[in-house]
Amino acid sequence: MCYDNINISTSIFVEQRPNAPAKVQSGTFAILYEACNANPEHMRLSPMLSRILNASELTFNADVRPGVDQMQSFHSHLRAHIVDILLENCSCFKGYHRTATLQHGDRHKMPQGYRTQQFPLRTSTIDESSVTGNIAVIHDVYVNQLRMQHGEFSDRAIPSFNDQATNARIRGAKTLRIKDVNSFTRLQFIQLGFGLFHLCLNLVWALLHVHRGSVHQIGSLSYFFTLLDRMHMLDSLSEGPIMSNESGKTWEMPVKHR
Q1: pTM for this entry
Q2: Phi, psi for residue 182 in degrees, rounded to 5
Q3: Cα gap 202→235, rounded to integer Å
Q4: CA pair distance 186, 22, nearest whole angstrom
Q5: From the CA atom positions of the chain, what is the Rg in Å?
Q6: Of 153, 129, 179, nearest to 28 (Cα)?
Q7: Other C-beta atoms lying within 10 Å of the C-beta of residue 258
Q8: Element (DSSP H or E) covering residue 165
Q9: Residues 64, 38 contacting (CB under 8 angstroms)
């Protein structure tokens, strides 16, 4: 289950009078996704809670450092990215785009033709920009719309992937409800994950922060920004690193959302 805020413009005209209608209607849009290869036995809540209570501290070597297989896969993708630059910018390499050995390798490949089933829910007028708002959204989704009972979540975990702000508010709601009466009202059944887009934003910002350097330091990001005539990325007042998608649309990563 995932959800995010939505803002709908209700008018293009300005009405300056008492009790005038709002120019924008804010709300929340939720959507359910079918989990690929999900096993109900693996989604039991009690083993997860037990493991959390008995979990040891994370260590870099055991829990963070990539394994040999992961590093080999990562390096193969880096090589493919470097080759892509040649294929896109050097006319003499144009004929190699479909060469099998130059393609990105598969990792956790989905079945051929698989498409995730999506089940959009009714948009509500609940503002999810607060801890209490997120509690209300979750109640609306499962109780008001899906007509489920609290007891159905006594030993069931539901993965939920959202942006960082939403996840932070849900964690706050769990802290607020930690002594409530059941796993639904304590929101324990919601098991959070972060969206890959936000992971990329944080990764790019970390790279910029660590490797920015100075224009006089050969090999630093600042050096290459200058070399590529991207001086705006050196501005200390800049909101954040520039991101772009395949369509060529660019945007800046705002600092206030990290």
Answers
A1: 0.73
A2: -150, 175
A3: 19
A4: 34
A5: 23
A6: 129
A7: 13
A8: helix 164-176
A9: no
Other CB atoms within a 10 A radius of the CB of residue 44 amount to 13
What contacts 120, CB < 8 A, 6 or more positions away?
29, 30, 31
pLDDT in tens, 131-175: 999 999 999 999 999 999 999 999 999 999 998 899 999 999 999
Instruction: Please classify residue 115 by burial: count the beta carbons closer than 10 Å to its beta carbon, then call 0-12 exposed, 13-18 middle and 19+ buried.
Output: exposed
φ, ψ of residue 133 to 5 degrees: the values are -65, -40
* DSSP labels, 186-207: TTTTEEEEE-HHHHHHHHHHHH
Given a cut of 80, is residue 16 above it in pLDDT? Answer: no
Kindly state the average pLDDT of the residues 125-135. 94
AA letter at 242: I
For residue 138, the one-letter residue type is I
pLDDT score, position 167: 93
257 alpha carbon, distance to own chain's centre: 12
Residues contacting residue 212 through CB under 8 Å, at least 6 positions apart = 220, 221, 222
- Whether the Cβ atoms of residue 185 and residue 151 lie closer than 8 Å to each other: no
Rounded-to-10 torsion of CA 220, 225, 227, 228: 140
Give 223's pLDDT tier (boundaries 50, 70, 90): confident
Identity of the amino acid at 231: M
Cα 241 from Cα 255, distance rounded (Å): 9
Q: Are 170 and 188 in contact (CB under 8 A)?
A: no
Distance between CA atoms of residues 166 and 161, nearest Å: 9
Residue corresponding to tokens 């040999």: 68
The structure tokens 């999900």 sit at 38
CA–CA distance, 134 with 141 (Å, rounded to integer): 11
